[in-house]
Design brief:
The protein has one helix and twelve strands.
Amino acid sequence: MEARNLIVNPQPYSVADWNTAGRDSDIELRTTSSGDCIYTRNLTGASDLYVRTIVRDLLADDYIYAAYIATAQVPPAKTLRVIQGSPLLEIASCAFRDGMNLVRFTLETTNSVELRMNISPTKGAALNFQHIGLYTEESFTVMRRQEDPVRWFSGDVIERGGVPS
């Protein structure tokens, strides 16, 4: 079986596939100067701020949404959140931690999901995220069980060293 990363722009070369929630004036969203991370910052202290990308027409299956996070401020309570498209409903989330964050979720029917990255409600709070992935549970298992486990991959890069459970 071939493992697949279902995120359109997992390496993030740009923020073109990510957008802000609420007023754009509340969130700074850009790539870092090195070009390998997405940088977000709460400009106003508003709560429930997040950036998101949408993945359409996923088949009914078990999935893992993963992202590596580095933070500059107090972390939000929940960082990665998965919102089912129809009906619009939060179906999974994880508590924040620096490093690799994983959220497991199941889709019962073919559906679209909104993958969110929450930002702390503290004015000036910022975080960088990279190594974004959306995998079926089967793909994720294939990555981890290789002799030299795959931590993350895009169409251009394979990073080895394993991933957390």
